[in-house]
Amino acid sequence: MPALPQAVPRPSRIVVLVSHVQLTATPSRLAQEVQRVAESHAGAVEIQVVDRAIADALDYAKSLEQANAVDVFICAGATGAYLHRNLTAPVVLIRVGGFDILTALNRASRAGRKVAILSYRETSRALEEALPFFTLDVRQAAYTSLKDAQARVRELAADGCEVIVGSSMVTELAEQAGLTGILIVTSTAIRQAIDDAMAILRSTRDDAARRQRLDTILHHLTDGVLAIAQDGTVQSLNPPMAQFLEVAPEWAVGRSIEEVAPYIRFDTVLKTLAAEEGRIITHRDRTIVANLLPLFEDGAPAGAVLTCQETAAVQRTDRRIRSSTRPSNFTAKYRLAQIIGDAPAIRSVIRLAEIYSQTDSTVLIAGESGTGKELLAQGIHNASRRRKGPFVAINCAAFPETLLESELFGYEEGAFSGSRKGGKPGLFESAHTGTIFLDEIGDMPISLQTRLLRVLQEREVLRLGSTEPTPVDVRVLTATHYDLRERIAAGAFREDLFYRVSILRLQLPPLRERREDIPAIARRILEDIARRSRVTRASAEIFALIAPFLESYPWPGNIRELENVIERAALAIAHLEPGREFSADDLKAVIPELFAASPSSRDTGGDPRPGMKALAKSAEYVHIRKALDECGGNVEQASRRLGISRSTLWRRLKDRKRDSGALAAAEDVATR
What we know:
The protein is an alpha/beta fold and 672 residues long.
């Protein structure tokens, strides 16, 4: 936006207007005295002394005003009061004090014994009380106009007065009547009047500077600003507001708001003096969000001000705020390229994920617990156009229903007992412009599935306790270990939501179906453990001990269980006494589940051998039962120890009961 043009300031100017009944060719006595005093202010301000006839004093003063040739007038007596009533520029009166009167009377005593003091409007009460102490015969009189002054002079002359003390005009009238005129104005009164005028100039300059700064600020604001007086007239508006209203600022200032913008109603604010925030105003094809605030001066109503922003600017600001206040943990660390595996099953999944990352459609990632569903979701996010936005993940099975609802959708202040002051945005709002990952969506309660379906359809979120929905721009990725069609048949999952979340589908293979990738995955896990835990013993030693089990063990907990096993072995080796070898017995004590399903522990004995799948399930069950026993039957502690969710643990136990015939034979072989 271009800067405001800077006008070249002229020097401040004071005009001392000395009025006369009849203008003389030479400077008057008062003009000469003013000029002498004004010389002491040379350089600080320009002071012009003008003798003028009373008849044309007002016209002359107005001509100076219109030409912007004056900042302050200085006048005396009736002329000063008259100009003050009829001019816009400030008028300073030369005020006479007790010292001025005494000085004038001292001069008058040398010209006559009977003296009159003729003052404008009123006489001095203090002087009246002091008259008995004077040796002079002094009387006071007052006038209100030129004719009245002429009449008073005639009366005083008829009463035997020899000297009249007063203003420049009064002294002229006295001399015209054949009397002696003594000027009551002294250099002290003139100096005080000039000081008062300069104080006004300083205040005016300060006000002008403040107005200039304010105008500059308003001119450069991107928000529109409009101020009106209490009577509804426009006082000021800046360029953005003028552009929105489609008016010229010069035309609008001074006009009624009804004429400038009839669709902006200030009535309520002016009457109730209550602020109004968030008003939506539409003018032609543009919409703004406006705030109306009452203005006060010295505690009294003085009008109102309107500030506004275009809705597009508000939305941009909202996105920046959401981005800047986004928690640091709302980021995706992993990329698709970091997923280890050359098995055809995993390579095909990665290729599909790369294709799906280029769209905004919802993706359902299916797979057993521990297969890396969240890692795949993070990779899809980081390969998408939303990579710079937030990645928000939540496990739907880890929260009670009421807490999950407030976490996902947020709440307003007072929505429930103990709710945070100001409310809280939900994870959908936190994921705005990015991705939200709903893990274990099959465990989401039916009531929340209904709300989730609406979010996916309408792309807006309604906080708990709110009536105004919040638009969100979010891509949704979901994951589950369930067969959702079975959940639908059981009435635990909405069919319409299933089709919403499974537009694109990915099926992660379990670790036992990609055994050729296990050594590479194990090495990466060892590297990570060494980096985190500073394990110094060689990874080759660990590999030598667990290698026989890597491809034979069924890995019911998949990659998560593989991580647990390797970390236990690595830490056990790391804490051996120096020089001591880690034996198979040590390994069996640390990782008994491997030996429970180990091929070396099987004794065929010529008996019919169950299939490998049944054997794997048997080993898995033994492993789960051992963890439950060690945790005293506490399912939550056992699931954490095994690295699987509670729902997965229960499902594995149910599968055991369902397949009890086949698994019983397998268990007998596995535990012999």
